[in-house]
Design brief:
Layout (H helix, E strand, L loop, with lengths): L5 H5 L32 H12 L8 H30 L3 E5 L9 H8 L2 H11 L3 H5 L11 H15 L4 E6 L7 E5 L2 E5 L12 E2 L5 E12 L2 E22 L6 E11 L5 H5 L3 H14 L10 H29 L6 H4 E6 L6 H12 L4 H11 E4 L10 E3 H7 L1 H21 L4 H7 L2 E2 L5 E3 H7 L4 E3 L2 H11 L1 H6 L4 E3 L6 H7 L2 H11 L20 H26 L8 E6 L8 H17 L8 E6 L7 H18 L8 E6 L4 H10 L2 E4 L11 H7 L3 E4 L5 H8 L5 E2 L4 H7 L5 H7 L1 H11 L12 H9 L6 H19 L2 H13 L6 H13 L8
Parallel strand pairs: 1-2, 1-9, 2-8, 9-10, 10-14, 14-15, 16-17, 16-19, 17-18, 19-20, 20-21
Antiparallel strand pairs: 3-4, 5-7, 6-7, 7-8, 11-13, 12-13
Length: 842
C-alpha cells in the first residue's frame, strides 16, 4: 500500500473517542472530533490561488505552483477554525501555555495537516478531479529549516499534542532563513551548504507586522574592513516580526499557533548619512538585524559566532516576553494574576534569558517591587533540562552583558546575591557549595551560567527520562536538588503517534486499526490490546507483510530520490541521530568491522545479509564527528568493493537526514541501535519512534530506553553494556588497552583500521581513533562495551531466523509503546507543572 492510501485505510469521517489513560490525569478525557468540510473539491477554490496569488494561468503552472495552491486551499479550510480558536481563548480568558524553544523540527506540513483535519476522502476526490500526483505534490514542500535534532522534533511533537488535547498553547521560536545546513558527502567527508528552505513563499505562514516588537541593545554595530564589530555606548534597536504557522490538533477542532520571530532593522533610516556617501555605515544595522535570524546555531568556534548566538537567544526571549505580556494585559489588569493565566516552558537553557527579561518588564515597566516581581517570575516560568553534559550547559561572558545588556546584568547579579544569601542560610559555612551554585563562574573571563539561572528563576526543573531526572537531581545538579527538592521532577519524553505511526506507516496503522479499532490514534495506551495477538499466527503474518512493504517503499523512495539501491530482503539495521562521541556511531562502525573480519576469515560463515543504515549531521566545527562520518563512508566503500562480503554486508550513509527521511526510514527499520554511553543520553525519541513502528532495539540501559524495556520486558530487547553506575564507578580504573590486548576481535578490528585498510589513498587519516580509543583513555568507553554489543548482536541475528518469534517480539514492542506518546507527556506537564485545563473550541 502506498502512503497515499493512509486516509482511506486508517481514518474515518466519524467522531473518534478514546478512553483516558491511567497515568495522564483528567487531561486525557477525549473530545469527539468530526470532519471539516473541504470546499477544495470545487476546482475554483483551488484555481483561484493561481490567479489571485500568482497571477498565473493554471495551464502554465509548475509542480511547485500546484503545491502552493493546494496547500493554501487546505489553509483556507483551517483558517476559520484557527481564528475561532484564538477568539475562544480570549473570550474564556484561558490560561495560556507558551513553549519557548530555539528549535521546532516540524518537517513538512501538508500531509500532516490533512491527516489531522480528517480531510482524507475529500482530498482524494480533489486529487482525482485535478489530476494531481500526491507524492509529487508533497515532495514540493521542503522540510522547514527550524531545527536540527531531537530537541526540535520533541518541541514539534509537543505542539501537536497540546493542540490535540485542546490546551490553549503557543510555540515561540525563530524564523531561520537558512536553517542549520544541507549536508552532502564528498569523498566521504561531510560538506555543508546553505539550506535556503524559504526561497519559495511558504503557504502556511502568516506575517503579522502589526504585532512587531522593538528589541533594544546597549550597543550598535559597524563594518570595519569587512568585519562586523560592536560599538559600545551607542544603543540600537531591532524589530521582531512575527510569522504565524497553524498547529492543527487531531480532529481539527483546535488550531494553535507556532509564532516565529524574524529580525529586521528598525524603521529609522538615516538618509542623510546614506546620501552623503557612508553606505557601509548606514547599512551596517540592517546587515546586523538580517544576520540575526539567518541561520540556526551559528558556528560557535569563533567569538563572533558565540556572540551572535547569545543575541539570538536574547532576541527570542525578549520578543516572546513582550508578546505574551501583551496577550495577558489584553484580558487582565491585575499583574498578580500572571502565574494563573500564563505558563512559560523554557526548552533547555537557550531561552534562559527569559528570566531577567520578564523581571525587567515587571520591575521597569509594571513598576512592581522586587519581591513581587520575583515571585511572579518564578511561578510563571518552568525549565526543561535536556543534557547531562556539563559542557553543554551554556555559559556567557559577563563582559558581553556589560556591552549589550547592562540592565539584564544588573538584574542577574541581584538575583545571584539574593540566591547565594539563601544558600548560605540553608548551608552555613559551605563556601564551595556557594561557588558551585552561583550564577557567576569565576575565571578569565567571568561567565554567567544559564542552567543555574533557569533553575533559580523557575518553579520547576524537569528531566526527560527517569534515569536522566535522577542523575540531574543526584549528580549533575546535586546542589540544586538539595536546595530545591520540590522543584525537580521527571517528564519522560514522547512522540506523536499521528505523524510517526498513522501518517508514516500506513500499512502497520491499517493492521492495528483492523485489529483493535482506531481509538489508539488519540489514546495510544489502547495499543496494549495488541498484546494477545503476539501469539496469533495470522496477525504475525500481517505484521511481517507490513514491515516488508515499508522496507520496499523505503527502498523505492531512496532509489528515486538518491539513486541508491537497497535490497529489502536484507536486515535493515539503523542508527539515525546527531553525530556525537557519546552517541557512539564509532562503536557501531567497530561492530561492523568485526563482522566484516569474520566473513573475510571464514567466507563460509552463516550470516544473514544485512544493510547498516546511518544518518545524522555533525556540527561544522566538530572535527571528530566529521571524521566518524568519513570512516563510515570509507567502510561502506571498502565493503562494497570486497567480493568476499559484497551482498552479505552493506553500509549506507544517508546524507541530509530530515523529518521527511525519517518518515520513510523508521517504518522500514527492523533493528534500532540506541547505543549511547550509559548515563549520557537524556532520553532519546528516535528510540520511541522505532519501537512504535515494530523495530527491535539493541542498546544500552540509557535514557528512555530503560523505560521502554521495562514496559515491554527486557526479554523483548537486546540490552548490553555497562550501566550508568558502572560507567561512573569504572572511571578510576578503566583501561581501554586491556580490551585491545585481551580481546582478539577488538584488536584485529583496530589493527585493520590503523593499517589503512579503509584509507589506502589517505594514509593515517583515522589516526585520531587510536588517540581517542587507546592513548586518551576512551572517555565514552567504546571498547568496554564492544564485546557485549557483539554478543547481543549474535542473539539478535539468531532470533531473526525464527520469523514468528521475531514478529511476536515486534508486536509486543508496539503493544507497549502507548506510554511513549507525547499526549501522555503533555498531559503530565499540564497537570503537574502548568496547572492548565483544556479549553475546547466548540
Amino acid at each position: 500500500m502506498d502512503k497515499t492510501d493512509i486516509w482511506s485505510e486508517n481514518m474515518s469521517n466519524t467522531p473518534v473517542t478514546a478512553q483516558p489513560s491511567n497515568d495522564a490525569h483528567t487531561l486525557l478525557k477525549q473530545y469527539g472530533c468530526g470532519p471539516i468540510p473541504f470546499s477544495g473539491t470545487d476546482n475554483a477554490f483551488y484555481e483561484r490561488h493561481f490567479v489571485f496569488d500568482k497571477v498565473l494561468d493554471k495551464r502554465e503552472s509548475t509542480a511547485r505552483d500546484q503545491f502552493e495552491a493546494f496547500a493554501r486551499s487546505v489553509r483556507d479550510v483551517l483558517s476559520q477554525r484557527w481564528v475561532l480558536t484564538e477568539q475562544i481563548y480570549g473570550r474564556q480568558n484561558a490560561k495560556r501555555i507558551y513553549y519557548v524553544s530555539m528549535e521546532f523540527l516540524i518537517g513538512r506540513s501538508l500531509a500532516n495537516n490533512v491527516t489531522n483535519l480528517l480531510l482524507d476522502p475529500l482530498i482524494q476526490d480533489s486529487l482525482k478531479q485535478k489530476k494531481l500526483d500526491w507524492i509529487e505534490l508533497i515532495e514540493q514542500e521542503p522540510d522547514a529549516g527550524l531545527g536540527n535534532g531531537g530537541l526540535g522534533r520533541l518541541a514539534a511533537c509537543f505542539l501537536d499534542s497540546m493542540a490535540t488535547l485542546q490546551l490553549a498553547a503557543m510555540g515561540y521560536g525563530l524564523r531561520y532563513e537558512y536553517g542549520i545546513f544541507k549536508q552532502s558527502i564528498n569523498d566521504g567527508w561531510q560538506e555543508e551548504t546553505a539550506d535556503n528552505w524559504l526561497r519559495h513563499p511558504d503557504p502556511w505562514e502568516v506575517a503579522r507586522p502589526n504585532e512587531a516588537v522593538e528589541i533594544k541593545l546597549n550597543c550598535s554595530f559597524e563594518l570595519h574592513n569587512g568585519v562586523l564589530r560592536a560599538i559600545p555606548g551607542r544603543p540600537s534597536t531591532m524589530i521582531g516580526i512575527p510569522y504565524d504557522r497553524p498547529v492543527v490538533g487531531y480532529g481539527g477542532k483546535t488550531v494553535n499557533t507556532l509564532r516565529l520571530w524574524a529580525a529586521s532593522a528598525a524603521d529609522y533610516f538615516d538618509f542623510r548619512e546614506f546620501s552623503g556617501g557612508d553606505f557601509v555605515g548606514a547599512l551596517a544595522e540592517t546587515l546586523t538585524a538580517e544576520t540575526l535570524t539567518r541561520v540556526l546555531y551559528p558556528d560557535d568556534s569563533t567569538s563572533f559566532g558565540q556572540a551572535l548566538r547569545l543575541v539570538q537567544e536574547y532576541f527570542l526571549a525578549a520578543c516572546s516576553v513582550a508578546d505574551l505580556i501583551r496577550r495577558f494585559r489584553k484580558h487582565n489588569s491585575d499583574w498578580n494574576l500572571l502565574p494563573e493565566k500564563v505558563a512559560v516552558q523554557l526548552n533547555d537553557t537557550h531561552p534562559a534569558l527569559t528570566v531577567p527579561e520578564l523581571m525587567r518588564v515587571l520591575l521597569d515597566e509594571a513598576n512592581l517591587g522586587w519581591e513581587t516581581a520575583w515571585d511572579l517570575t518564578r511561578r510563571t516560568l518552568a525549565y526543561t533540562n535536556h543534557t547531562l553534559l556539563p559542557e553543554a550547559m551554556e555559559k556567557w561572558p559577563v563582559a558581553w552583558f556589560e556591552l549589550m545588556l547592562p540592565r539584564h546584568l544588573q538584574i542577574m547579579l541581584e538575583i545571584n546575591q539574593r540566591h547565594l544569601d539563601a544558600v548560605r542560610t540553608k548551608f552555613p559555612g559551605e563556601n564551595e557549595r556557594c561557588t558551585r551554585m552561583s550564577l557567576l563562574e569565576e575565571g578569565s573571563p567571568k561567565k554567567l551560567r544559564m542552567a543555574n539561572l533557569a533553575i533559580v528563576g523557575s518553579h520547576s526543573t524537569n528531566g526527560v527520562a527517569a534515569l536522566h531526572s535522577q542523575l540531574l537531581r543526584t549528580t549533575t545538579l546535586k546542589d540544586f536538588g538539595e536546595m530545591f527538592p520540590d522543584r525537580f521532577n521527571n517528564k519522560t519524553n514522547g512522540v506523536t503517534p499521528r505523524r510517526w505511526l498513522l501518517l508514516a506507516n500506513p500499512a502497520l496503522a491499517r493492521n492495528i486499526t483492523e485489529a483493535i479499532g482506531d481509538g489508539w490514534i488519540r489514546d495510544l495506551d489502547q495499543l496494549i490490546k495488541l498484546k494477545p495477538l503476539a501469539e496469533d499466527c495470522a496477525f504475525l503474518a500481517a505484521i511481517r507483510k507490513s514491515k516488508y512493504q515499508a522496507k520496499s517503499e523505503f527502498a523505492n523512495w531512496l532509489l528515486r530520490t538518491s539513486g541508491v539501491k537497497l535490497d529489502p530482503d536484507t536486515i535493515f539495521d539503523s542508527q539515525v541521530k546527531r553525530i556525537h562521541e557519546y552517541k557512539r556511531q564509532l562503536l557501531n562502525a567497530l561492530r561492523i568491522v568485526v563482522l566484516y573480519n569474520r566473513l573475510r576469515q571464514n567466507p563460509e560463515l552463516a550470516m544473514a545479509p544485512r544493510t547498516f543504515l546511518f544518518a545524522g549531521k555533525a556540527a561544522p566545527a566538530y572535527h571528530f564527528a566529521k571524521l566518524v562520518i568519513k570512516f563510515i563512508n570509507n567502510l561502506a566503500g571498502t565493503i562494497e568493493g570486497d567480493p568476499v562480503v559484497r551482498g552479505r554486508l552493506r553500509v549506507v550513509f544517508l546524507p541530509d537526514y530530515s523529518v521527511s527521511m525519517a518518515e520513510h526510514l523508521i517504518p522500514a527499520t527492523e533493528v534500532s541501535n540506541q547505543i549511547s554511553t550509559a548515563g549520557y543520553e537524556a532520553s532519546g525519541t528516535s528510540n520511541m519512534k522505532f519501537m512504535m513502528n515494530g523495530a527491535l532495539t539493541i542498546g544500552t540501559r540509557d535514557g528512555a530506553t530503560i523505560e521502554m524495556a521495562e514496559a515491554a520486558g527486557e526479554e523483548n530487547f537486546f540490552l548490553f553494556g555497562l550501566t550508568a553506575d558502572q560507567v561512573s564507578q569504572n572511571r578510576t580504573w578503566y583501561s581501554p588497552r586491556w580490551h585491545y590486548e585481551n580481546e582478539p576481535e577488538t584488536r584485529a578490528a583496530l589493527e585493520l583500521i590503523f593499517s589503512n585498510h579503509f584509507s589506502r589513498h589517505e594514509p593515517n587519516v583515522f589516526e585520531p581513533f587510536r588517540q581517542l580509543l587507546l592513548d586518551k583513555g576512551d572517555y565514552y568507553m567504546h571498547l568496554a562495551d564492544l564485546g557485549s554489543y557483539l554478543a547481543a548482536d549474535q542473539q539478535l541475528t539468531a532470533l531473526y531466523k525464527i520469523t514468528d518469534a521475531w514478529a511476536s517480539k515486534a508486536v509486543l514492542n508496539v503493544a507497549h509503546a502507548g506510554r511513549f506518546s507525547s499526549d501522555r507527556t503533555i498531559a503530565e506537564y499540564a497537570a503537574d507543572i502548568w496547572d492548565a485545563k483544556p479549553c475546547p473550541v466548540s
